[in-house]
Write a structure and sequence with these properties.
The protein is α+β, with helices and mostly antiparallel strands. It has two domains: 12-80 and 226-271, Orthogonal Bundle (Helix Hairpins), CATH 1.10.287; 84-214, Adenine-n6-DNA-methyltransferase TaqI, Chain A, domain 2 (Alpha-Beta Complex). It contains seven helices and 15 strands. The chain has a five-stranded mixed β-sheet, with no helix packed on it. Helix 2 runs antiparallel to helix 7 (217-256). The chain is globular, with a radius of gyration of 25 Å.
Length: 271
C-alpha cells in the first residue's frame, strides 16, 4: 500500500483531465457500440441459417407457402433431396508430414495441422511444409476431424493438411460455399457422430455417410450469397473494432505522456 501511495502520476490541470477522459471514453464507447453490432450480426446469421436451411431462400412472410416434407434430418422443402455427403463430394483426409519438413520461412505449401489456425472464414497459417503429403486445394472446405470436431474454414489457397483436418470438395451438384455454411449449421449433429469419450474424432466413413439436404444448385448459391453478405458485414465491423482498439492504445499513450495535449476538448499536437 505504501508503494502505491508513493507512486508518482502525471497530473494535468483538472479541465485537461476531463478532456482526456472525454476523448478516451468516446473511443471506448465507439468500440463497445461496434461490439454490439457484431453480436447482433452473429445472432442474425444464426437466425438466418435456421430459416434458410428449413425453408430455403424465401422471405419470412412467404414461409407458409413453402411445402415441407419430414426427413431423417428434420423438415425440409418438398423439392429438396436428402443425400449422403459421399454422393455429392470428394474427400482428402489429412496426413502429417515429417516435422523436419516444417519451416517458418515460407518454403513449400502453408501447413495446417488442425483448427488452431482457423479464422472466421479463412485460416491463417504460421508454418509451411516443404514436402506435403496431403493437399487441400484452393476453394475446398477444411473441416476439423479431431477434437474439437466439426469446425470449418474455406481454403484460400492450396494447403498441406495434417491429420487433424480433412478437405471436402463438392461435385457439379454441390456448391462449396453452401456446404461451408451448412456444416456450420449442422456442427452439433456431426459432433454427435464422433467417437471417443474424452476427445472426439470423426473418420472418413463418418464424413462420407453424413446426411445433408440438397437444394437445387441455384438455391444453394442464393443461400450462400445471403450468408456471405452477413459475413462481409461482420468482417468489416471486426476491422473497425481492431482499428478502434489500436486508436485507444495510441491515444492512451500519447495523452498520458503529453505528446498530444487536449484543452477544452480541442486537440493540439505538441511539437
Amino acid at each position: 500500500m505504501s508503494e502505491i501511495k508513493e507512486t508518482k502520476i502525471p497530473l494535468p490541470p483538472l479541465p485537461e483531465q476531463r478532456a482526456i477522459a472525454h476523448v478516451l471514453r468516446t473511443v471506448q464507447e465507439a468500440k463497445e457500440a461496434t461490439e454490439r453490432v457484431i453480436t447482433a450480426l452473429r445472432e442474425l446469421k444464426k437466425s438466418l441459417m435456421r430459416h434458410l436451411f428449413t425453408y430455403g431462400p424465401v422471405p419470412v412472410d412467404a414461409i407458409e407457402r413453402v411445402e415441407l416434407q419430414e426427413t431423417e434430418i428434420g423438415p425440409l422443402p418438398a423439392h429438396w433431396r436428402v443425400v449422403r455427403l459421399r454422393e455429392v463430394a470428394s474427400f482428402t483426409m489429412g496426413q502429417s508430414p515429417p516435422s523436419s519438413t516444417y519451416n517458418t520461412s515460407g518454403e513449400g505449401l502453408p501447413f495446417l495441422q488442425g483448427k488452431a489456425e482457423f479464422g472466421e472464414v479463412y485460416p491463417t497459417p504460421v508454418k509451411w511444409c516443404s514436402q506435403p503429403k496431403k493437399v487441400a486445394s484452393r476453394g475446398s472446405i477444411l473441416i476439423s476431424v479431431r477434437a474439437p470436431v466439426g469446425d470449418v474454414n474455406v481454403a484460400r489457397e492450396d494447403y498441406c493438411i495434417g491429420r487433424g483436418l480433412a478437405a471436402i470438395n463438392g461435385n457439379e451438384v454441390l456448391n462449396n460455399w453452401f456446404l461451408f455454411y451448412l456444416l456450420i449449421f449442422t456442427k452439433r449433429r456431426l459432433e454427435d457422430s464422433g467417437t471417443g469419450s474424452t476427445f472426439k474424432s470423426i473418420n472418413k466413413g463418418v464424413l462420407q455417410n453424413f446426411l445433408i439436404p440438397l437444394p437445387p444448385l441455384p438455391e444453394q448459391r442464393e443461400i450462400a450469397r445471403m450468408l456471405q453478405a452477413i459475413d462481409a458485414r461482420i468482417e468489416a465491423e471486426e476491422k473497425k473494432k481492431t482499428a478502434l482498439e489500436a486508436l485507444f492504445r495510441t491515444l492512451l499513450h500519447h495523452l498520458m505522456t503529453a505528446k498530444i495535449r487536449v484543452r477544452n476538448f480541442e486537440l493540439s499536437v505538441k511539437r
